[in-house]
Amino acid sequence: MLVLPGQGILTIVTGFLFVDYPGKFKLERKMVSYPAILNSLNWIRSKSNKAPLKI
Q: What is the pLDDT of residues 1-55, one digit of tens each?
């Protein structure tokens, strides 16, 4: 059985990005430090002619 995150889980994760809570900034920095996520963010930024993020 293939298990993939559904629309509800993705909505909840997106909601957490908009809410302020203790440790949010630290969590965001940790997530962006993963090479796959950093490369994806930089690819999106390059599409809008923005400078790449540097860690």
A: 666 667 788 788 888 889 998 998 998 899 899 999 999 999 999 999 999 998 8
Find out whether 53 and 45 touch, Cβ atoms under 8 Å.
yes
Distance CA 52, CA 41 (A): 8
What the block records as the tokens of 37 is 């996520």
Token pair of 28 as six digits: 């965001």
Are the C-beta atoms of residues 46 and 52 closer than 8 Å to each other? yes
The alpha carbon of 41 is separated from its chain's Cα centroid by a whole number of angstroms, namely 8
Q: What single letter denotes the amino acid at residue 39? A: N
